[in-house]
UniProtKB/TrEMBL annotation:
<dbReference type="InterPro" id="IPR036291">
    <property type="entry name" value="NAD(P)-bd_dom_sf"/>
</dbReference>
<dbReference type="InterPro" id="IPR020904">
    <property type="entry name" value="Sc_DH/Rdtase_CS"/>
</dbReference>
<protein>
    <submittedName>
        <fullName>SDR family oxidoreductase</fullName>
    </submittedName>
</protein>
<dbReference type="GO" id="GO:0016491">
    <property type="term" value="F:oxidoreductase activity"/>
</dbReference>
<dbReference type="Pfam" id="PF00106">
    <property type="entry name" value="adh_short"/>
</dbReference>
<dbReference type="InterPro" id="IPR002347">
    <property type="entry name" value="SDR_fam"/>
</dbReference>
<comment type="similarity">
    <text>Belongs to the short-chain dehydrogenases/reductases (SDR) family.</text>
</comment>
<dbReference type="GO" id="GO:0016020">
    <property type="term" value="C:membrane"/>
</dbReference>
<keyword id="KW-0560">Oxidoreductase</keyword>
Amino acid sequence: MKPLIVVTGGTKGIGRAIADRFIAEGFEAVVCARSIEGIQSDGLLPVVADLSTRDGVIHLLDYVQSLKRPVDVLVNNTGIFLPGQIHNEAEGTFEQVMNTNVASAYHLTRGLVGDMIARRKGHIFMMCSTASITAYTNGGSYCISKFALLGMSRVLREELKPHGVKVTALLPGATLTGSWEGTDLPEERFMKADDVAASAWAAYSLSKSAVMEEILIRPQLGDI
């Protein structure tokens, strides 16, 4: 039986690049998104789920558990970016962003980590951001959520140390995905999604006695 990775927001962008890299290395990948239209590929197990809601998280957990297979890797990648500032962003932005970016990772991790602890094996990746360590004026609730996600990663790392479960926070800078569609900036100002995927695979590939706790990746030419 092939090892299993679960990647939220795994149908495009960085999430899809991670899923594809692990599939190339012999995994099968459960990927979820609010729409999976046209998502068919060997090794992909697509699931429709809106992880901004508890019902969506429960639906994904039910599907994963129905497979009756251990989860070797969890990538909490789903996220939303709504530009704005704390004092003027639309009412409800904070709740929407925190539910999508933070609460989904919290509840999904809680639902899957028990089996990892029991097996003393597993790796959890949290898709943080350079916005987890650098505030910027149009970040608003997004920055808050990414700071929170990095904090959750550090708490999990401490909790899971004695149980043999690894936790890695990925902090990528500007990556050329659909979220930058329409930009006038040249491609060389961005990282590629495959660069983030390669970093995740490198972290996973370490021996059992080593862990990459946090991986900060920026474009060679610096932040945008």
